[in-house]
Every structure is written in structure tokens, then in C-alpha cells.
């Protein structure tokens, strides 16, 4: 699996939903670093505590050519957001996306079940839906808000559409962002795409040079590469 490692969101995608704290379940479900943080906060009389996200080595994708050869590009809009705990007690945020268009698709997609990893609240998936997860988020347990902030944080909004360069896994049900935030663009009403990552990143710069950050030109560039 290229992007997804165990139940940790080691996908190159870092998405923090500010202010969207999930309510943890029974006390015995809160474990690991989050449980430790809750106990530390209660002992010191605090109602909120912040913990570091696990260290993640991002994938290296630096050109639109590489995207067209090895990755997929989808257009979609978030339908649902769920905050959950990983098996070892870190926080992750999951998104269910409705895909309206696939601009290009990677040569092969690993075939394996996703159900054991994904939150039950996001299942089942429709034929035009995919899941995307990220390190970080916030959870409330025993009156304490635990916030986990990854190094690169931004949010996907339910009322916006996005163009995402991804690596599809789990029979196409899971999408891991290529090159972290630098593989995500917000689609505007005029057809332009705004990068959500760093403007100086090689991938972001290459997409701008080759497409002018325009969805139609991106569509054409990827189509020509497939010929």
C-alpha cells in the first residue's frame, strides 16, 4: 500500500477540522496518547490540551507528469466528516467524498477490504464515493477537549468542491493525497483551481505552468498524456 499504513492516516494528507470536536465513546475506548492527555489535563484542572501528531514521511510527487503516470485525479465534494481514534490512541479525521469526475486514473488499484479500518458511520460507500483520512483533529472525553495538530493543517469544507491528486487504495474506496496538501486544490465557480498547499512546491508550480490553474486545461493536459 503506497499511502495508507495500518489505521494511522499516514497518507500525506493533513486536514484539521478546527472547532469540529468529536465526542468520544465509552471511557475504555479512549486510550493511548489521547487517554494520557485527558488524565494529565484533569490532574491540572484544564479543559483543553494539545498533543503532537505522529511523525509522517510524505510521498514525493513533484510534477504533473508523475501524477498522470502513477496517480489519480478526482473532482469531488465532502459529504460527511468523522473524527475517530486510531488503534494506538491518536486522533484522525475521516472524510466521505462524492466524486463527480475522474480526470485520470492510476494504472492499477490495490484490491483489499477497507471496512476494518474505516469508521462505521461512513459506511457503506456508494459507487461514486471515496474515503480520505488525515492525522489530526479534536475529540472530547470526560469534559476535556484533546486537540491533535499536524504540521500541515487545512480543512475541507462541506460546501466546496475540490480537485485532488490521489493514490487510490482498498479497491478504489480510499484516496490518499499525493504530496500532502500540495496535491489539493479548491475548485472555483469560474473553473479555476486554487492550490491549498505551498505555492513554491514543485507540483503546485508545475500545475500552474502547464494549466494556468484552470480545470479545463488540467483535464486536457492529463488527457494528452494518456495518448
Class by alpha and beta content: alpha+beta
Helix content: 10-25%
Number of individual domains: 1
H/E series: EHEHEEEEEEEEEHH
CATH 2nd-level architecture:
Beta Barrel
Shape: elongated
Count of separate DSSP helical elements:
4
The CATH topology comes to: OB fold (Dihydrolipoamide Acetyltransferase, E2P)
Separation, N- and C-terminal Cα atoms = 27 Å
Strand content: 25-35%
Overall pLDDT metric: 86
Indicate the radius of gyration in whole angstroms.
Answer: 18 Å
Largest sheet: 7 strands, antiparallel
State the name of the first-level CATH class. Mainly Beta
Count of DSSP strands: 11
- Stretches where pLDDT is under 50 for at least 5 consecutive residues are 3-21
Describe this structure in words.
Strands 3, 4, 5, 8, 9, 10 and 11 form a 7-stranded antiparallel sheet that branches. A 4-stranded mixed sheet has the order 1-6-7-2, covered by helices on one side. The chain has one domain (22-226): OB fold (Dihydrolipoamide Acetyltransferase, E2P) (Beta Barrel). It has 227 residues and is an alpha+beta fold. The protein has helices at residues 32-43, 64-70, 202-211, 215-226; strands at residues 22-23, 48-52, 72-85, 91-104, 129-135, 137-141, 144-149, 161-169, 174-177, 184-187, 193-195. The protein starts with 21 loop residues before the first strand and ends with a helix.
Compact description:
The chain is an alpha+beta fold. It is built from 4 helices and 11 strands; from the N terminus they run βαβαβββββββββαα.
